[in-house]
Automatic annotation (TrEMBL):
It comes from the Bacteria. It catalyses: a 5,6-dihydrouridine in tRNA + NAD(+) = a uridine in tRNA + NADH + H(+); a 5,6-dihydrouridine in tRNA + NADP(+) = a uridine in tRNA + NADPH + H(+). This is tRNA-dihydrouridine synthase. It comes from Marinifilum caeruleilacunae. Catalyzes the synthesis of 5,6-dihydrouridine (D), a modified base found in the D-loop of most tRNAs, via the reduction of the C5-C6 double bond in target uridines.
Length: 332
């Protein structure tokens, strides 16, 4: 199998894995809005290895790895790689989950979550808590690598309670990974304050000295495509990962797209609603979709009124009805 990390375009752009956000429906929306050659990597939602290996929990968790046929088609057309992100603390379960992903899904690679700062996750010794358990982190990487030939990456932070970039990143660079995404905050910060890109630059320097074959992706506070390009140039990273920036602009990966009209925003919202409904039906709480409505309902007359109406919708039909009422009122 060809390892795409070895010849991926630089600078490259990716959409971050986000809980209850980066499901197959929203990934397809992002693929549809991305300009050719401007988006390179997409990630799944966080997928628990414990859940995947549980006799009852498996069926409740594996939906996070769902890929619609329509998404798969767009991934191929736009040459975008899709990566499954997994989390947990048991190396054996990482091994089994990695084998499942390699044998039962169409994902192009695996990413290990060593960065999520959420307290109830950290309390169980998972994700960013692994920064404080470097040997366990190494065991997890080795177990995942042993399970499959799929390309392997890690997403992490620059520290837990304090910055430990040199020791922690050096440790990871001594493991058999292909890429490393670094969020420029410590766990204690959660999403507060500004990401420290100077620490990310330190990681790049360490990489250059220790493992020049490993790609470094920077993450944190990238507000525009142009800013992403500038950060790649200034800090030496191979690419940037976009998280919250997508909520400000769903056309983030089409930097030439400006002054988007109301009608286009509403049509994209309706398409997202259709894809969500088609993908999940009644198997997912429709309220998850409401968090996206603010993405599409801004910057035009009456947007707040439409948004308020949408926040009480319970299914796709009610969304379409709310939109129709709004459009009729605007014509009156």
């Amino acid at each position: 199998m060809t390892n795409f990390w070895q010849n991926i375009q630089s600078p490259n752009f990716s959409l971050a894995p986000m809980e209850d956000v980066t499901d197959t429906a929203f990934r397809e929306v992002v693929l549809k809005t991305a300009a050719s050659g401007k988006l390179h990597l997409l990630f799944s939602e966080f997928t628990s290895v414990e859940g995947m290996c549980h006799p009852v929990g498996h069926d409740k968790v594996k939906h996070r790895l769902k890929i619609n046929e329509s998404e798969q088609k767009l991934l191929k057309e736009k040459n975008v790689k899709l990566i499954a992100q997994i989390w947990g603390k048991d190396p054996e379960k990482y091994y089994k989950t990695a084998q499942f992903i390699a044998n039962e899904t169409e994902f192009d690679a695996i990413d290990i979550n060593m960065g999520c700062p959420v307290k109830n996750v950290v309390k169980n010794g998972c994700c960013s808590a692994l920064i404080t358990q470097p040997e366990l982190a190494r065991e997890i990487i080795l177990a995942t690598r042993e399970a499959t030939n799929l390309p392997l990456s890690v997403k992490t932070r620059i520290g837990f309670k304090q910055v430990v970039t040199e020791s922690w990143i050096s440790h990871l660079l001594n493991t058999p990974i292909d890429a490393l995404t670094i969020h420029g905050r410590i766990q204690k910060q959660m999403s507060e304050g500004m990401a420290d890109w100077n620490e990310i630059a330190k990681a790049v320097k360490l990489r250059d000295e220790m493992a020049p074959n490993i790609k470094i992706i920077g993450n944190g506070d990238v507000e525009s495509y142009q800013e992403g390009l500038e950060k790649c140039e200034k800090y030496g990273v191979d690419g940037v990962m976009i998280g919250r920036g997508i909520f400000k602009n769903p056309w983030f990966f089409d930097p030439d797209k400006r002054d988007i009209e109301m009608e286009e925003k509403i049509e994209l919202m309706k398409e997202h609603t259709r894809l969500f409904d088609q993908s999940w039906g009644d198997s997912k709480n429709f309220a998850i979709l409401r968090r996206f409505f603010k993405i599409y309902t801004n910057g035009f007359h009456g947007a707040s009124s439409l948004r308020n109406d949408l926040m009480s919708t319970r299914n796709a039909e009610e969304v379409y009805a709310a939109v129709n009422r709004f459009l009729l009122s605007e014509q009156a």
